[in-house]
Amino acid sequence: MRTVNVIRAQLRASVALAVQYRLDFVVEGLLALLWMGVTLVPVIVVFQNRPQVSGWTFPEMLLVLGWFVALKGFLEGAISPSLMNVIEHVRKGTLDFVLLKPVDAQLLVSLAKIEPWRSVDLFGAAAIFLYAFHRLGRWPRPEHVLLAAAMLLAAILVMYSIAIVVVSIAFFAVRVDNLLYLFQSIFDVARWPVSIFRGFLAIFFTYILPLALMTTYPALALLGKLTLPTAAGALLGTALFAAFARAIWRLSIGKYTSASS
Amino acid sequence: MKYALKAYPQLLRTGFAEAVAYRAEFLIWMFSTNMPLVMLALWAAVARSGPVGAYTQKGFAAYYLATLLVRLLTGSWVVWEMTMEIRSGTLALRLLRPIHPLLAYSAENLAAVPMRSIVAIPLIVIFLWNVRDQLAGDPLIWVLLAPALLGAWLLTFLVMAIIGTLGLWLESATSLFEAWLGISSILSGYLIPLDLFPGSVRAVALVLPFRFLLSFPVELALGRVDRAQALLLLAAQWGYVAVALLATRTLWRAGLRRYAAYGG
Fold first, then answer.
1. Residue A215 contacts by C-beta under 8 Å, 6 or more apart in sequence?
2. Best residue in B20, B23, B28, B30 to probe A by mutation, most A CBs within 10 Å?
């Protein structure tokens, strides 16, 4: 109960902070729309030349892109801004103030800064889904939507855990503050279904850096093509990885020596 | 001017030393330029079942590796630095120095090029070696590549300087630049080769300045244009550079008149 209250208060504070800048809200919202267009254009050009790519038709590919747009919005609107703050805290030594509070530090830093205008991405993703299913000429069955929702939660959890691990590196090497940007840019690969890759890259993006889990699996789930063993394996892997990230975070916090004078 | 010419080599040396000092960050920034490779992954999958337009799988590899190389060599970051310094008021420090701030910025950005090359060239050369049959055969075209790259660097820098200077009026100059970046990534050939666009879009994209930021040097390296076209395009590129230079100068003068440094 207490945790829920803390989360509510944190969210309220960070939204209140963001809506002070009303012009930004409009400008950033428009920019999010523009980037969504930039994401779509190459796919439209590709499918003018081919009816399908690696077994994916245009509307099916749109489903992957829809998940990509939504997750990218989530990553750049909620996860990254908050965790970027941690690196700042470590450098300045102000993490002390966070650690002193009688609430779990990971929880506190994870919701510290949110950019509500990135919710435009979520609406954009919804529009892409609607159009894709319109093109497909059928709607997903309820159990498939449920499975997709489960995969989405797993995707968010994995993304967040990777970010936590990346940020934990800041405790050891303060100079690598742009590692999180590197992860953001690698995430760009997730805009394509993982089946376009062959050999080592296919394995890498499925098991080592599981981008497949983030966009391909939820899209397959919506299409009813995701098998239950794969889904179960993905969920189990997610749980293990989240636990691992949590352990890394605790280890790093232990190593933290305040930088202030 | 004479003074600036004398100071410029030293500014370059300082900039280079800075790039070396922040090499870890530098490397990571360079690795986060990966969109050409992401696009290559898609097109390589598409071209598995046969060439698209004039591009085979190898053709796409050559195109996107050349794109990556041009992007790494011609990149700047001046717009971020300018808007930050305008906001924090540290631009005042630059104004006190006896050298034009834009010249100083250009030296800092130019001085990073050797560092970028050291990291980028070995990697790219290996790749280009594998796709060398896709490259231009005419030696004169390769001679023209040097001024084309310089032009692309200058144009990139000047566009950033223009938008950065607009930061003297606007608070959201970086958003404006983001919008430019989005449009440019489509129309400069960064994401898709311009000749794969449908006819009408391509016709527009070929004359807009975006092409000369990136696509033009790539087209040269891949031998997509003959000598006469190459010379004409080079003239057009430097025409755009001249216009941009004039615009930067005019805006900078007007902007400084209303600039009041923040902070104490």
1. A64, A67, A68, A71, A155, A190, A191, A193
2. B28
Q: Which residues of chain A are modeled with pLDDT < 70?
A: 174-177, 259-261
Per residue in B212-230, pLDDT (tens digit) is 999 999 999 998 888 999 9
pLDDT at A260: 53
Mark yes or no for CB contact B185/A38 under 8 Å.
yes
Report the C-alpha gap between A70 and A126 in whole angstroms.
8
Q: Where are the beta strands (DSSP E) in chain A?
A: 52-53, 56-57
The mean-pLDDT minimum among A36-45, B24-33, B105-114, B180-189 falls in B24-33
ipTM: 0.86
Residue B193 lies in a domain: yes
d(CA A15, CA A9): 10
Asked whether the beta carbons of residue B182 and residue A201 sit closer than 8 angstroms, the reply is no
User: At residue B264, does pLDDT exceed 50?
Assistant: no
Nearest to A188 among B38, B175, B192 (CB): B38
In a domain, B263, yes or no: no
Query: Residue A191's closest CA among A211, A162, A164?
Result: A211
Split into its structural domains, chain B has a count of 1
B264 lies in a domain? no
DSSP category for residue A207: I
Domain of B113 in residue numbering reads as: 2-257
CA distance B49 to B56: 10
Q: Mean pLDDT over all residues of chain B?
A: 88
- Helix B173-187 and helix A22-49, axial crossing angle in degrees, nearest 10: 0
Whether B66 and B218 have beta carbons less than 8 Å apart is answered as yes
- Residue B202, domain member (yes or no): yes
Q: Which helix (H) or strand (E) holds A225?
A: none
